[in-house]
Amino acid sequence: MASGWKFGRFWPLPSVRRSLFALFFGVFSAAAAAGGYTGPLFDAHLHYNTEAWNGQAGPHPLPDVLARMQRSGVKAIVANSRPNDGTRALAEARAETRAAGVTVVPFIRLYRNRDDYNNWFRDETIYEMVLAELARGTAAGPYRGIGEFHLYDSANAHGPVAKKLMALAEEKNLVVLAHVDDVAIDLLMAATPSKGQKVRLIWAHTGIGGTPVERVEALLARYPGLMGELSYRPGLTCEGGKLCGDWRALMLKYPGRFLLGSDTWVNQRWMYYEDTMAGYRTWLGDLPAEVARKVAWENGAGLFGLK
Ligand SMILES: [Zn+2]
User: Which pLDDT band holds residue 35 (cuts at 50, 70, 90)?
Assistant: First the structure.
């Protein structure tokens, strides 16, 4: 800021002075708005899909996405992609991710293409792909989870491959990332040997269809390994981007159970990556500091044993 004022003396034009003034206070107020939480972030729901990079020819090649994470203070990511090549690219870029200060936690996505969205839960070749990927691993270490997968009809949680994958997740200690409704949470949990008492499942968007907070609370109480990821969650923030009262109360009751995510499912989400993270920093500031740090970083780091 001092150099800005000195600059003003060399450019005595009032308009330049005014814009420097505006720049300074603009930056200052943005920092102040986001200032509630300034620590590290764990992005627990990130996609690096083919249209984002397309073998480096897309609009968001590796240097671009890593720079966005670095500018946002994101220190670790759950990486998954359609197809899995994007995750591999992130996992293989050891020098670049290290330089950006980003730890890559690789997940196996169940989608080779768009058609798989509506069929994975009954397609044996998806199960075989998951086993092959698990055996193959990545340059950043073994896969740590499976997903994100979707169930647009919760009854498809009864699909044979959905049930086998849930059992596999529990058996292999893989974390599941699932975009499903609350009914499907019960069904998926029931498909595990422990009936949902051991498996760790990140609930993408924590009920994007507007599952009532009371129902979210009941599911958290029932399944000790259920974690709520909060992108696109309706009713989470109220006026001025502040955390709504019922969600604040739930986070205070279960501070160890919530996560943040960018959900870069389309390229537009990459374009606004920094804004998404700044928005999280705003409402994290409405929580006590130790709770904010858990939701922002520690819960994700703890889930995968990161330092
Ligand atoms: Zn997603």
Answer: low
Distance 194 CA to ligand 1 centre (A): 27
Separation between Cα atoms, residue 88 and residue 29, nearest integer Å = 39
| Ligand 1 centroid – CA 234 distance (Å) | 15
Neighbours of 171 (CB within 10 A): 12
User: What is the CA(56)–ligand 1 centre distance, in A?
Assistant: 21
pLDDT tens digits for range 8-23? 333 333 444 444 444 4
Mean pLDDT across the stretch 298-302?
Answer: 98
Q: pLDDT value at position 57?
A: 81
Helices 14-34, 2-10: inter-axial angle, 10-degree rounding: 170
The answer to whether the predicted template modeling score (pTM) of the entire model surpasses 0.85 is yes
Q: What is the DSSP string of 10-67?
A: H---HHHHHHHHHHHHHHHHHHHHHTT--S-EEEEEEE--HHHHTTTTSSS-HHHHHH
Distance 47 CA to ligand 1 centre (A): 7
Q: Give the distance (Å) from ligand 1 centre to CA of residue 11.
A: 48
